[in-house]
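sorry to bug you again but im stuck and you know this stuff better than me. what follows is a protein written twice so to speak, once as letters and once as structure tokens for the fold. mainly i need to know what kind of three dimensional shape the backbone takes. anything you notice is useful, everything is just below:
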Amino acid sequence: MLPFYDTNAKLRYIKFCLLLFTFLFVLTGIALIIIGSTINAIYYEFIFFLRVDYITPATCLVIIGFFIFAVACVGLYGTLKSEALVIGAFGGLLGLVCVLQLGAGVACHFLTGHLVHNLRVTMNETVWIYPYNEYAAERMDAVQENLACCGMYSPKDWHQVYNGTEIPRSCCAIDDENAMCEYIHNTGCYARLAPILKDTSRMLTTSSAVLAFMQLTGMAFAFYMAQCLRQQMRLRRDRKMMVTEQLLYSDADGTKSPI
């Protein structure tokens, strides 16, 4: 009888831990959605200067975040109902999410260099076609106004484009159409935007590693609880068989008693 009660007590402890982890797993999903959406929101303002293909890791994190909610529901159901099969499936799904998440983080880490390179090339082209391409001019103006910068490396870039005759009004430090542009931003836009890309990539990679560690921990809890549930089921079955045998022997002894 002691092994049964020992397993039962251990199972209650594991069940509590897994319920707590499932709640943390939901928070993980929210964190992934927020992180991925934040990175996409940052990139959206400067999408003209970037390749859309390189933003997919952040989008992948958003998709994984939503997928986590479904996985968390599976884990919650399996834990509350003490279903060994469902909890085992929950552990397997945690492993799948962990692999997808780490893949997104690693992909973003290795693609950051290409992303910064494309930013440099595209921004240089945009500066030169600024006088002739209205859409490119709008995008460059938006970057210069939002990031308080001017040109690619410095305001001198516009001197080459306009032969020193003028400079875009978006470079003005004081945005007043009726005022003279006496003060301009001295920092180049590449120096402003490149660190943003590197920082967001670092944030994505770091968060992926931390959250993956949490998921691996939850996967270990899930598999261990599934094992304890199967062990408990075996003990219950053995206990039931033992009680049945005792009843049968008791009945047999009763029939053989003297009249």
